[in-house]
Amino acid sequence: MSIYDTLNPMQQEAVYYTEGPLLILAGAGSGKTRVLTHRIAWLIDEVGVNPWNILAITFTNKAAGEMRERVDNIVGFGSEQIWVSTFHSACVRILRRFADTLGYERNFVIYDTDDSKSVMKEICKRLNIDTKIYKERALLAAISSAKNEMVTASEYALNAAGDFGKQRVAEVYREYEKALLKNNAMDFDDLLVKTVEVLRNNEDARNYYQERFKYIMVDEYQDTNTVQFRLVSLLAGKYRNLCVVGDDDQSIYKFRGANIYNILNFEKEFPDAKVIKLEQNYRSTQNILDAANAVICNNKGRKEKKLWTANESGEKIHFNQYQNEYDEAYQVVDEIGRAVSSGKAHYNDFAILYRTNAQSRVLEEKFVARSIPYRIVGGVNFYQRREIKDILAYLKTIDNGRDDVALQRIINVPKRGIGATTLGKFMEYGQARDLSLFEALEFCDDIPRLGKAGDKIRAFVNMIDVFRAQSEYITLAELLQNVLDETGYVKELEAESTEEAQGRIENIDELMNKVIAYEEAEEEPTLSGFLENVALVADIDSLNEAEDYVMLMTLHSAKGLEFPYVYMCGMEDGLFPSYMTIVNDDPEEIEEERRLCYVGITRAKKRLTLTYARSRMVRGSTQYNMVSRFVREITPELFYKGRMPEKEKAEARIQRPASYSKKQAMKVTTSYGKSFVVQKSDALDYTVGDTVRHIKFGIGTVVNIVDGGKDFEVTVDFEKSGVKKMFASFAKLKPVD
Questions:
Q1: Is the model's pLDDT at 546 over the cut of 50?
Q2: Which of 30, 161, 692, 696 is 20 to 30 A away from residue 642, measured at CA?
Q3: Cβ distance 727 to 465 under 8 Å?
């Protein structure tokens, strides 16, 4: 039997069609990689194509490595002459030969993100650009987007006419390009852009590579951007034997620059193109595929196709509704635990998918409580994320001034001009006198030659002192909000205007949810108690050593993977699709979210469970959402026991999150400003031995008063809460007659 006899009829047609442009619409789980490798073998074995003349290109090193291995196995001798490469790797090989035609030396260096940021930092300094307004990351993101669309610095400047912000970006863009050329360096976007420039402008280079690559195959074509489309079009310009494989229904990376119209308009660019649909799925049961089809058919911007399988119908779709996200997490984790305990499955048979990284927090805590091993795919555990560790370090410093590790982490985060040299002086001072680092900072006036850094140290110490005073009489949630506001941590992330920054903000919002949940659960919540609670939950290092663990990941991270049992959590309008997507009412954004749902559904092989929480804490307040419209698009017959989501009342509509008004109210009602000026009284209207009342701790006796310079430090022995030390200005103690 020939290796090609194992292919289904449509796969065979895709393998045998070798001349001219070809679009293979490969549905989820339809065996596209198998088709590509067999097509390469067919070209060599049956058509007589020299392996030297074949280029197979994809996106990631992992995908390229897997394709390389499969090609080597199926082709055998001579396969090493085939270029199996990522876009960037292929471009580097071309530029190593022709970079000199662009004014670069062939031994140019490739700048990573940190290198580019260093260049941008220097440019901003030279141009006197306020990086509090124009963040380096935001500037680099704007330049990257321009390069992805083949917009040069001069073109960007022309388009920026009348827009001061864009004109500033144009100025930076121009200087950035000059700096890269001067340094004989290219960033990752340049590798693509400069290669297109070479092929457009250099006839020798274009002829060489068009002759070299007579047969070109591109995988995951739906994820290509404009410059990648131009690249493959130029390479295939002479022989036009361009085969692209992709699925428009799985185009989910618009935020990275992917242009779905590359695949949707392929036949417009190549009118003589043949289109072959791979609709037979080898992964999932028919019920799961029917659910996926029912959702994706609501998109208008797509190529018509319908997945089917020769597999059994399988289980119906499970849809479970819960009161809140804690019930949801508890039940999902409990179901997995019981399934594994009964011997029906292993932990690594399960995947939990969600729309945002922040959703993992509650799930992680339930897994830790049940001692069930899990792994975050495409991310890090919630309490190990940088922004969470930063904010917790602030809280630790407020709670415990002797935690030097926490203090060193945040003393210059966000940046406040306190460098390593300055910090080193205080560390030496503290070590010589057996002081903690924070105690050393309080002796700022004793350390010579600090200059302006001394003022910044004093401001930092004052800020922490104020936070400590506030912690005595406000809630933990208010304290956390004050830390976020006064440090400008979230504002700095907002200024970046990137997808990554938005995800980090969502994680901080989830930390606020954790704080509020802790306060509601404890009779006497304290900052120390909260940090202890977090430390116990976050101690999950031992779980990472397990080989058999449940996978947790965002829907974006799940693409290309498959699992016997899949849970899609948080299926609510306002979360998936997101609140902003609904409010913006942009059909293209809704369709991208629907494609993301389709990707999630098609990850499941045997059983798919969708979960919905009637209420969910978002940004610190409870939010009530409708069942996701994507769930409601699935026909009732596909649900287990005919079970469908409860019908919402007609008046139930997506509302602006209550947290917005709450945050506003918190800012209005707080009596302290951003200047951190302590209003010290000339004298107190109580003394040692007097009975006083505190708004939070009740009745107590003053046991000590110390004039601390900036304020009076008052120690009170409260009847119910014990001994507390606080600043008089913030304690607002009232004498009791």
A1: no
A2: 30
A3: yes
- Check 70, 409, 603, 607 and give the catalytic one: 603
Query: What is the residue whose two structure tokens read 């507390």?
Result: 724
Q: Are the beta carbons of 596 and 353 closer than 8 angstroms?
A: no
Q: Pick the catalytic residue from 136, 189, 220, 573.
A: 220
Phi, psi of 636 (to 5 degrees): -55, -35
Given a contact cutoff of 8 angstroms between Cβ atoms, the answer to whether 554 and 356 are in contact is: yes
Any catalytic annotation for residue 32?
yes
Residue 580: name the closest of 568, 597, 592, 569 by CA.
Answer: 592
Beta pairing class for 550-554 and 350-354? parallel
Is 194 catalytic? The answer is: no
Using only C-alpha atoms, the chain has a radius of gyration, in whole angstroms, of 30
Structure tokens at 269: 């660019």
Rounded distance between C-alpha atoms, residue 726 and residue 473, angstroms = 9
Q: Where in 578-627 does DSSP place strands (E)?
A: 604-613, 615-618, 621-624
Average pLDDT over residues 114-126: 87
Sign of the CA dihedral with 410 first, then 537, 322, and 515 last: negative
pTM summary value: 0.74
Six token digits for residue 122: 């220097």
Annotated catalytic residue within 58, 210, 250, 611: 250
**Residue 604 and residue 565 in contact, taking contact as beta carbons nearer than 8 Å:** yes
Cβ within 8 Å of residue 113, ≥6 positions away: 140
> CA 658 to CA 615: how far, in whole Å?
12
| SS3 per-residue string spanning 273-314 | CEEEEECECCCCCHHHHHHHHHHHCCCCCCCCCCCECCCCCC
3-state SS, residue 114: helix
Q: Which residues pair with 716 in a beta bridge?
A: 702, 724
Per-residue pLDDT tens digits for 584-623:
888 999 999 999 999 999 999 999 999 999 999 877 778 8
Closest CA to 370 of 335, 325, 322, 333: 333
Tell me the backbone φ, ψ of residue 160, rounded to 5 degrees: -90, 0
Confidence band, pLDDT 50/70/90 cuts, at residue 433: confident
Please give the pLDDT value at position 663.
Answer: 34
DSSP 135-192: -HHHHHHHHHHHHHTT--HHHHHHHTTT-HHHHHHHHHHHHHHHHHHHTTEEEHHHHH
- Mean pLDDT computed over every residue of the chain: 86
User: Is 603 annotated as catalytic?
Assistant: yes
User: What is d(CA 613, CA 509) in angstroms, rounded to the nearest whole number?
Assistant: 18
Q: Catalytic one among 33, 167, 691, 701? A: 33
Pairwise CA distance, residues 65 & 58, whole Å: 10
User: Is 275 a residue whose pLDDT tops 80?
Assistant: yes
Instruction: List the one residue out of 513, 702, 546 whose CA is nearest residue 615.
Output: 513
Identified catalytic residue from 11, 32, 305, 465: 32
Distances (CA, A) of 226 to 208, 246, 320, 534, 592: 23, 16, 42, 45, 18
pLDDT at 667: 32
**61-98 pLDDT, tens digit each:** 777 888 888 888 887 777 788 888 889 889 989 998 99
Alpha helices in 635-706 (DSSP H): 658-669
* 33 a catalytic residue: yes
Tens of pLDDT along 560-593?
Answer: 899 999 999 999 999 999 888 888 888 999 999 9
d(CA 274, CA 516): 58
Residue 719: CB atoms within 10 A of its CB come to 11
Catalytic, out of 175, 219, 472, 572: 219
